[in-house]
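Annex B.
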Amino acid sequence: MRTFSTSDLSRKSGDIIASALQGPVSINQRGKPRLIMLSVEQYEALIHVADNRIAGATADMSEEMAGSIASAIDSYLLETAPAP
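Antitoxin: predicted structure tokens.
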């Protein structure tokens, strides 16, 4: 993965975009990775894989586990709901 600094964004935007069209690019700030830039096609492929994993995991889930998760979500929503 190619790496660029945040200051490169203004000076080398064309190079960064060209690199991101070839593969993911890391944008670093103060030497630490802060952003990943990738093409729309790469992003959509990543989301597709994640969606398939989620679908597979939930399809294999027992009724009991699904009920436990739904109950936990309901509890969380009640705890975090704004006061009327």
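The first helix runs from residue 8 to 11. Residues 5 and 31 are 8 Å apart (CA to CA). Further annotation is deferred to the next reporting cycle.
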